[in-house]
Write a structure and sequence with these properties.
Two copies of one chain form a homodimer.
Chain A: E1 2-8, E2 11-16, E3 28-36, H1 42-47, E4 55-56, E5 61-68, E6 80-83, E7 86-87, H2 93-96, E8 107-108, E9 121-124, H3 127-130, E10 132-133, H4 143-148, H5 152-162, E11 170-174, H6 178-189, E12 194-198, H7 202-211, E13 215-217, H8 221-231, E14 237-242, H9 247-256, E15 257-265, E16 273-275, H10 278-282, E17 287-290, H11 295-307, E18 319-322, H12 326-334, E19 341-344
Parallel strand pairs in A: 11-12, 11-14, 12-13, 14-15, 15-17, 18-19
Antiparallel strand pairs in A: 1-2, 1-4, 3-5, 3-9, 3-19, 5-6, 6-10, 7-8
């Protein structure tokens, strides 16, 4: 089959690899119906250490179960399934607490002997804990929205949940990528009335307005901070969702958060240390939270709204390509020509 | 009157200064009955930039109102009062939300033209918002416990509240100073059953046991982390309260916190940057919280237990000195001869 590998900065290739097969009796093999490219894939696209082996890419998909191991109980051949961006056993304490990204026996796509999802098919370990079957045909127009439950919608929701957004919370979202836009949608869904979106790509911020943003701030740095502070009566935002991962976005978050407020990070941090001292987080009692979303945990909560059409998170996809065009898809996302690229194997 | 000033590392002097007087009609003048030395006073004692003017010291006291401005309504001459370690108007949004340390018009003792509390008396700005009158005589044996409501008990409580400690939470407290011990007491009060205290001064950890610690870990660094992990089934502690403020304590906190857990800092950080990246906070979804405690906010909650004797936080005081002995009190606390020093002006 064909699968996507990255070999170094800017070097993405679609190559032939062996077809996936059942290895453990808790596995399933899933044929991928739609995958996509994630903003977080652009981090290694910029900074990956060159590797002759390459790394399998892709961690979001909707697919159809082709085969299951003898011990698999909750899905069967022919089921349409959502695969969250981490696989997990569903039974350990962390899974039961809803933190599947820390599952005792789980892992991430493309790690060890598990493939990536920008591919034609994949072996899914711990299929019972990982996969969620949905009563939808693979030709359904709901597929793009279901695919967002694999990562970006769950990630936006995680940001808002970790920050304890409720009615009355003023939320600022830093970043107008797909995760930032999903954070807007999620904050709105949890009742936030004032949602400031910091971003400067009009097409994206327009979609942000559609998802619930009440104010757009295109400026960055000191100007952007001043603009958000002015919008929030001088004090800043109760909650700031940082959906980028670079240090200037962190600094922006510190600049616009209100004393006693929360910075919730879902952009994968591209730094190891950050300011947390008296003058930044400690003095004004700022809480720093967030991390990789346990997307699996949120599917039960978020799926009904997708199925009944009350939300349409699939609107973040603005381009669809075939699997062999994935390298071009990375380029288009990196150049901000495309917001989020759907991949049809 | 006599008052304490610090001029540089190790250089504490008790000097003659002008008696405080009413400046604004919202002021009170308070004669200090008992003050004390705080672990956080030892930070400048180590690292203050030398100054010929000096800094007024002390931010905790119980006193008696001597005089009030015309606009003061809630306290009157002769009242015994607790002064929280920040003064605040009690009316701004931050005060109404219980974040008096971020009061729009408030400040900290020893800043601007407001004196420190290791002194004979002090001018209290915004007396209505700041002072809490308690129906106790100044000769009462409850005075030391009431004095802890000025800072350390409120600070320990803040650490536990910000970390949302409830029954069933496993809590590790890093630091066996007065704030660490108050965090133990507070975690116990909020229902925590398993409380690991990391500290190596037996007299202090014995008091920690009395306040509710179930386990003591004397080791530090990798050994200390391994010991806490062993005590917590390998996964670490839901909540870690960092009551020191130095980087090794932060690193210890990161080492012992459970995935999905909370690090709550109440030791004033002596660093500006810290590890917060994928490998420390982000990957395991750790929340970092804490800051200066709004001690004023917690007095209503904590006072009844002090008055009825169900808690005895005043046990953290193990030495009492006169005001002129304050320099010796700093030395004794810095040398770990004394846990917390009560000052009798």
């Amino acid at each position: 089959m064909r699968a996507t590998y990255m070999y170094g900065p800017g070097d993405v290739r679609v190559i032939d690899v062996a077809d996936p097969v059942i290895v453990d009796q808790t596995d399933a093999v899933v044929r991928i119906v739609r995958s996509c490219i994630c903003g977080s894939d652009l981090h290694p696209y910029h900074s990956m250490s060159p590797s002759s082996q390459g790394s399998p890419m892709g961690h979001e998909c909707v697919g159809v179960v082709e085969e299951v191991g003898r011990e698999v109980r909750t899905v069967e051949k022919g089921d349409l399934v959502i695969t969250p961006f981490a696989w997990s056993d569903g039974t350990c304490e962390f899974c039961r607490e809803g933190l599947q990204t820390s599952c005792r026996h789980g892992g991430f796509w493309g790690g060890g002997d598990v493939g990536g999802l920008q591919a034609e098919a994949v072996r899914v370990p711990l299929a019972d804990g990982t996969l969620v079957a949905v009563p939808v045909e693979e030709t359904s127009p709901l597929i793009p929205s279901l695919l967002t439950l694999s990562d970006v919608y769950g990630t936006g929701h995680h940001a808002a949940v970790k920050a304890r957004v409720t009615a009355g919370t003023t939320v600022t979202v830093i970043g107008d990528g797909a995760v930032g836009l999903m954070a807007v949608l999620s904050a709105r869904r949890l009742g936030a009335e004032r949602i400031v979106l910091m971003g400067r790509h009009k097409q994206r911020t327009d979609l942000g307005r559609e998802f619930g943003a009440t104010d757009i701030v295109a400026e960055r740095g000191a100007e952007g901070i001043a603009a958000v502070r002015e919008l929030t009566g001088g004090d800043g935002s109760h909650v700031v969702i940082e959906a980028v991962g670079h240090m200037p976005a962190y600094e922006q978050a510190v600049g616009v958060v209100r004393p006693g407020g929360v910075i919730s990070r879902v952009g994968v941090p591209q730094y190891s240390k950050a300011p947390v001292g008296f003058g930044t987080l400690f003095g004004p009692n700022i809480t720093l939270t967030g991390g990789p979303a346990p997307a699996r945990a949120y599917i039960d909560t978020l799926l009904p709204g997708v199925l009944d059409g009350s939300v349409d998170p699939g609107k973040v996809f603005d381009r669809e390509i075939g699997l062999d065009e994935v390298p071009e898809g990375y380029r288009a996302m990196d150049d901000r020509e495309a917001l989020k690229v759907l991949v049809r194997p």
